[in-house]
Design a protein that fits this description.
12 helices; about 35% helix; Aminopeptidase; about 325 residues; 13-stranded mixed beta sheet; alpha+beta; 13 strands; single chain
């Protein structure tokens, strides 16, 4: 007996809030380790995008007999005359499938329903996605559609199956020597301590990190758009508190005589660590405090069972030196023939 399949596009804040409990239940499945699919992150991105571009965010949902089986947060990204292209709402990092989908079930059928709904509007030209969930079945849903794949680059990973010390031994002798030498040189400037942010220090640690990033902006332009969005810092603070409460935050702080000199903020999702942002006091730049804070944070994550660390987007040279592996990342644009 065929089960009833229904689709809907949610475009209002109230609609997103109404499915919060269903979203959280679907996220708990083992197929969804990405912290960028947590309800708190999706809601944060929704608010930020809506404030900057009203009417842009939308949530395409698929239900089977009333049960939520697929939810894809999208945003209107580009215009081609009157036509629109829709991208993932929650991240620009396509190594993660940024949609929730029930672990078991007819993925091909659900995928076809999602694509029909996403492209139902006559002005919808195409949908641009990163890695498709369940590619064997879900990808089959795109048969007959116009598809274009674009190489995004290689994501840098550090594999830690045998722990942090074993990982460090796989890095070049030059990097290991430099890491130890910089730590010793830093110790000559004062008493060095490393700690992880907790509920009492998190707000102050985030204030320091964001202040460092603001100082870098005129020099590098880094995060200029992000920091300029209304409420962006408040939203990040709220999300970090939620992640800390769930024991899914690793925010390592390196200090000299109690003064913060380096910090690395990462998220944890089951056995994976995901780098988010790094900062350091420019006065201590020659001692590489940001890298030291990151490596010590990776050690702390390995002790709690993390076996894979993703340096996320941007193939910068320092990430490649720390990485052990790479993952080829593509985007796929799906539209009508």
């Amino acid at each position: 007996m065929s089960m009833a399949l229904t689709t809907e596009t949610i475009v209002h804040d109230a609609g997103l809030a109404a499915i919060e409990d269903e979203w959280r239940a679907l996220w708990q499945q083992p197929a969804h380790p990405s912290p960028f699919l947590r309800y708190e992150w999706v809601a944060m991105c929704w608010r930020r995008v809506a404030a900057n571009s009203p009417g842009s965010p939308r949530l395409v949902v698929v239900r089977q007999d009333g049960e939520l089986v697929l939810a894809a947060p999208l945003m209107r990204h580009r215009r081609f005359g009157p036509l629109h292209e829709f991208h993932e709402l929650t991240t620009t990092l396509p190594q993660y499938a940024e949609m929730l989908i029930k672990h078991d079930g007819p993925h091909e059928e659900w995928g076809r329903a999602f694509l029909r709904e996403a492209l139902r509007h006559p002005l919808a030209l195409r949908v641009c996605l990163g890695r498709l969930p369940a590619p064997g079945e879900f990808g089959a849903a795109a048969r007959g559609m116009k598809a274009k794949r674009t190489l995004y680059g290689d994501a840098t990973l550090a594999l830690l199956p045998d722990g942090y010390e074993a990982y460090l031994e796989t890095r070049s002798k030059k990097l290991r020597s430099d890491h130890r030498r910089q730590a010793l040189r830093l110790g000559e400037t004062g008493a060095v301590t490393f700690r992880l942010a907790d509920a009492q220090t998190l707000d102050g640690d985030l204030d320091w990190l964001l202040q460092q990033k603001r100082q870098w902006q005129p020099r590098s332009g880094e995060l200029r758009t992000w920091l300029g969005l209304p409420g962006a810092e408040r939203d990040l603070r709220d999300y970090c508190h939620a992640m800390l409460a769930a024991d899914d935050l690793c925010f390592g702080i390196l200090q000299i005589d109690g003064q913060r000199v380096g910090g690395a903020l990462s998220f944890v999702a089951r056995h994976a660590g995901l780098f988010y942002v790094l900062a350091y006091d420019p006065a201590f730049e020659r001692y590489s405090p940001g890298r030291t804070a990151l490596l010590l944070g990776m050690e702390a994550m390995a002790l709690r069972g993390v076996t894979r660390f993703d340096f996320m987007g941007g193939g910068t040279e320092w990430k490649k030196r720390l990485g052990t592996d790479e993952m080829r990342v593509e985007r796929v644009r799906l539209g009508r023939q």
